[in-house]
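PT: before anyone asks, these are the final sequences, not the draft ones from last week. 444 residues across everything. Please model them as a single complex and drop the result in this thread when it's through.
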Amino acid sequence: MPVAECAFFRAAQSGKRDVMDLTVSDLTIARGGVPVLAGLGFVLQPGHALILRGPNGIGKTTLLRTIAGLQPPVSGQITGAEERIAYAAHADGIKPTLTVAENLRFWARVFGAGGIQPALEAFDLTTLAERQAGSLSAGQKRRLGLARLLVTGRPVWVLDEPTVSLDTRAVAMFADAVRAHLAWGGSALIATHIDLGLEAEVLDVTPFKATLAPVAGETDFDEAFL
Amino acid sequence: MIALLLRDLRLAVRAGGGFGLGLAFFLIVTVMVPFAVGPQSALLSSIAPGVLWLGALLACLLSLDRLLALDWEDGSLDLLATAPLPLEATVTVKALAHWITTGLPLVLAAPVLGVLLNLPQPGYFWLVVSLAAGTPALSVIGTFGAALTVGLKRGGLLMSLLVLPLYVPTLIFGAEVARRGAVGMETATPLLMLAGISAGTLALLPFASAAVLRVNLR
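LR: through. Structure below.
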């Protein structure tokens, strides 16, 4: 069972479990200067997964980018995110002229984590390892993008629509990987529209939709140029 | 950091990576100058240092728009920003990779192209020295320009307009070293200024580039 091996491998590698919660409290986030979600709060404990739901444009991606530290929140606090997050977005960050193994090995080295073999096995990429990533299908690229999560060794996975262009078998593979990650003591925050078959809490962000008032008075003059 | 450097170098030499593009551009520009100004060897040898420096500068500019834009397009930049590597280190390594793939070949090729422009004999040494001291500044300033325009569609032209004025001090002192060297004058003052510009930009601009990149990634 490659996925279980993989979890075992990483647990052995890091030696200790991560026991910090990811806490989000009273968070207001904005996209393009317009607040999209306000007053949002949740706690994500190790070993748990949280599924984010909500209609298109509600601000799920903005929320995940804010938690990943790519943009600052308008107000509110995020604790337990610093240097602990593996982020996966719509774009997989794959270089088409590198092989599958080279792509993965690069991220493994950047994150200072171990070998790539368990990650290749978990997403059934072993036979594709020497193929140029540019010649992969959309689903295979996505599997490579998700395999990257395993080589980061980070405890909190922040995933934005991870199952796009995956077939049912690959979705099951992904769900197995998430389960192994949770069993290891990691946690996952996943924005998705499909049922992954995970035992996870579901947070619908629709009630937190911000009333469409621009953040007047809160943006200073300099901010207008950023 | 070494992983990122190796990846960037590997990407540059793979298909479509653009390695040698700047060098070929430099070669063509230098070859075309005698066609434009005519075959007067005295005139050519007096303008050679300036032409070679201008050619090297434009060749450097040519490969800047792919420096960060490609990483932004495929999402790598977002992932690098969330990686343990500080963004300052990332942009420094990217500038270094750009220098190794663009600046260094220009330095090495310049003496060969000097022959085509009838560069006076004492000028070869100083041409190489001035390019070696000045091209790192071109890469670092260029990375700043690339960070400013990352995320803009067709940002290449805007980046050229932003970066070229910033190249002016490097060009003035670099060409001055090469020109003085060619006519056998003392070169210490402009060379020190040139090296100072390189060292100063290398020390300060990565912080500016990283700050700009953080804003652009929002």
